[in-house]
Amino acid sequence: MGAETNSAPFPEGPSVAVTQLTGGALIVEQYSQLGTDEEILETLSQGTDVATVYHSENNDELFIWSKDGEIRASFDFRHASWREGSDPDYVLDEEASGRAFDLAEHVTGIRLTEAVLTTSNFSIVRVPALA
Prior knowledge:
Layout: E1 15-21, E2 24-28, H1 38-44, E3 49-55, E4 61-67, E5 70-76, H2 100-108, H3 114-119, E6 123-126
Antiparallel strand pairs: 1-2, 1-6, 3-4, 4-5
């Protein structure tokens, strides 16, 4: 049996797909950079960990780990030795290039698998404009 599709219109403006996982949530966005915005990450990571794995159509590659309202590590996969944040060396024991989802699991404890992406029910949420 194939995946069900919803013919409802996609919301106008910035939006994300969200699903609840054991131990956290997965937020997927396409064609935007909300997951790289420091203000958003600081708010989302209050009391928890947030890992952003970013890849753009221009081959920009970025990993950001936020915890308790603070950017702990931020770097381009191709230049992992040039890290920023309050605890950038925490991710040193992991090989950065090509292992972004492993890094996300390392800092959040949540394993992202193909099954999670293909069997989870996502809700589409419109994100209000940032002032």
